[in-house]
Fold:
Amino acid sequence: MDLQTLQIIWFVLVAVLFTGYFILEGFDFGVGILLPFMGKDDLERRAVINTIGPFWDGNEVWLITAGGAIFAAFPHWYATLFSGFYLALLLMLVALIFRGLAFEYRSKRDNPAWRAFWDWSIFFGSAIPALLWGVAMANFIRGVPIDASMNYTGGFFNLLNPYALACGLASLMIFTLHGAVFLTLKTTDELHERAMGLAKKIWIPATLLSLVFAIYTFVETDLFARLGVNPGAIPIFSVLALLSVIVLLNKGASGWAFVMTAISIAFSTITIFMGLFPRVLVSSTNPDWSLTIYNASSSEYTLGIMTTVAAIFVPIVLLYQGWSYWVFRQRVTKDSKLEY
Amino acid sequence: MDTLFLARLQFALTSVFHFFFVPLTLGLSIFTAIMETAWVRTGKEKYRQLAKFWGHLFLINFAIGVVTGIVMEFQFGMNWSQYSRFVGDIFGVPLAIEALLAFFLESTFLGIWVFGWDRIPKGLHAASIWLVAIGSNLSALWILVANSFMQSPVGYQMAADGSRAEMTSFSELLFNPYVWLQFPHVITAGITTGGFLVIAVSVWHLMKKTRDEEQFRTSLKFGAIYAFVGTLLVTLAGHTQMQEMVHNQPMKVAAAEALWETENPASFSLFTIGDEEKMEDVFSIRVPGLLSFLAYNQFSGEVKGIRELQEEAVAKYGPGDYIPSVITAYWSFRFMVGAGTLMLLAAAIALFKVIREDYNFGKLTGALLLSAFILPFVANSAGWILTEMGRQPWIVVGLLKTEQAVTPASVVSSAELLTSVVVFTLIYSVLTLVDVLLLKKYATAGLHGAE
Structure:
């Protein structure tokens, strides 16, 4: 394979990793955000946390892998992005630190204040990244100040523009909806009813914010100019999938509703990456200074090695991670043995 | 404060904290797997209880290793963007492979192990904890592949425009001799760290005569063997590594020994107060010929001194200061070796007691075995400080200096860096305290606490 093909393969693979990450961690972020609203007492909260107990850590590895893949395949993308978005990433890291420990530690002591602290860690630790990922994706396509030597020249507040915040709110609500629908699949009795009620309520702002974001994108970025007046099947299906969720929920078809929130998240992510291609970070200072898969990538040899490794191990990972979802397919009840 | 200093401080803090937890994770994962295997093979209830108990302590500690590990992966880009641009073509690869091969395995099967006690067959459940242990130790391999490139770059060429190093051979990178010296050292350090915790907790239960006395005798038997084998191997692996370093990183060896002048035969310093400016000893106790013996297994042989190595470096790389902080290298080496020597003693005593089936501990023996678990932590931290500080002023030996690697101050200002240093220091300190208190709570609660 020649260099250009490999660069495209790795752009696609990074897009796949982010898509997988948003689908998987998306619902466990959602469950974390809904924790204060779902669990009226300690036992209920434990049941809610245990629905994602076996999965959340494996889901988070999708992010670590995406980070590693960007580093290996597009070092300049990794360097510019991670140094440029410094304080935002610091905030995300702090959120993920507290969240990760909260799952493991909250039920290790009986003290109510201890448990309340970790419950709020789960809430904020889920809500902050869910919001920040939308902010980050929006800034990828809107563009950020980048100079000729690929260095970010803006500050923290450049990232918090109204467009990016709109995208952040949309991703926050979509992940929350995704989590609510997941909970309808994994709970019983009152918890199930509560999850169903929440899912239907959240669907309204989630859909409205997504539409606002789509229209805003039309105004603010070159995404639709690049994709044409008819943006094509993928963004349209993303919207249709989201619209169908409420119908499916009203029918009680939770499984299909979950498939649809997943599709909506996947297709929105793919749309953003399609809009970016072949750029990876748009420079708002000068379009010629944007980072692309061509000027940011590793050598042909390195990309070739990485492709071989990915071709062998990605299918294996998908198999065993899929198997773990199969092992823990049952619903969690308050009478279940709660490990967390 | 300049960003280089702050970025180095942050890297030192976050990596020492991270590696404070990781070796225990490495060691306890294997120990838990051994206990569960014993349960599957013998069907004895006590092994199941012990697997749960040690698995529980493993989990408490594992969580911190995971969350502090994410910081490490992000930090290269955040604080060392010039470094990332320079070596991404090489260094990024083992990091990506680490995530794909090790972290997925570790996290997925840990979920299965924790939540799967009643869901999957016994054998499969035991296999899950083995896969976790393999995943944990495999992650050490890949991060050491990355680190070894910084210590001893191989399998690369400089890009035509000199802007970065590019990989030319993945197998050379993977089979870098340095990897295979570091990897056994780190794995056995993990086993040692786990082993000494097992000894301390077991002895505590035996001395207190808690209701789990019988099970903790078994635990101590396994723990003493585990710690003894681990300590023996970690010492051996360290010794081998030292012999390679005399050729490969002579400046690190000279700094670790405060050896100013080239000597043949070279003496080993037991205690030195030196003057780094004048490059001479103020006061020193030395054993003649011992350094030559450590380096070559014979009492003669030249070991180069700092002064000569500095001159060689200037001739090779141009004017500059190529001497790491001698005081840091010297004392970190002494802390590591000193702790290691005490560990050999403590492990031997524990093994001796176990072989004689003598479970009564006198005041002195008891105190030693209860407190010896601190020693591996000292040695682990000191070892990494020596490895990383002894490499200075290079970030990649011979290719890139640390000062060239840091993110430009125009991108990450010293105020931003100071913020993150303070945030990480505060959070990590509190979390360490929480981790230690939870470990203590569940270690002393005994077997029923983990059920």
About this structure: Residues 3-42 of chain B form the longest helix (40 residues). Residues 27 and 194 of chain B are 4 Å apart (CA to CA). Chain B has one domain: 3-163+174-241+321-444. Chain B has 15 helices and six strands.
